[in-house]
Amino acid sequence: xxxxxxxxDGFSSTGKSTLxxxxxxxxxxxxxxxxxxxxxxxxxxxxxxxIGPEFLDKAGLVGSLPKIQLEFxxxxxxxxxxxxxxxxxxxxxxxxxxxxxxxxxxxxxxEVRSKLVEQQQEMGKNKAIVMDGRDIGTVVxxxxxxxxxMTASAETRAQRRFDELQEKGDDVSYEEVLKNVVERDYIDTxxxxxxxxxxxxxxxxxxxxxxxxxxxxxVLELINDVVKTV
Length: 230
Hints:
- The chain is built from nine helices and ten strands.
- The protein is α/β, with parallel strands linked by helices.
- The strands form three sheets. A five-stranded parallel beta sheet has the order 2-8-1-9-10. Strands 5-6-7 form a three-stranded antiparallel beta sheet, with helices on one face. Strands 3-4 form a two-stranded antiparallel ribbon.
- Helix 1 (16-27) packs across helix 9.
């Protein structure tokens, strides 16, 4: 079977990472969670007092970019790669609601996006990759053979995220999660650099009422159709 590049974009908490992991495992492709990369940069900013509820030291963060080393390391027990920041496993820390509240602001910074996009393009130069994020089909891999754009209502996405955080034991309210989802949507779609938009040749999937299994089967069928034509 010919190898292709699969770009998955969409709003927060639409299950992009879950779908991408499923596809990568099925196809034996490399999976890259670009959201984890931006979250790791946001975590670095938090740890170094470069961002807070009322401030963002953009110049300080941009100046610190050479100090930020990002790496994915495969965890055989989990079946996917985890995010490492400067040698430390930060997979759990980057999934908190606090990091979620800052990540879109960090992702707005052009210098941050430039650094990470360059790394992402290098990761996918040999194809056989599934990458999810906000600008994969429009900026990172504009020539990807298959582009998926995932969406769902804000309420549906907030409930999914709330349930996920509750399972992890995080003390957070549904209202707080919904507010975060709506705010991230606005920032992601209104930023000047690489805003979240649907690529002209992307296939939009509203998974508000789809199970993970139904979604996976539908996208796998799309992949098989694309592979036949390349």
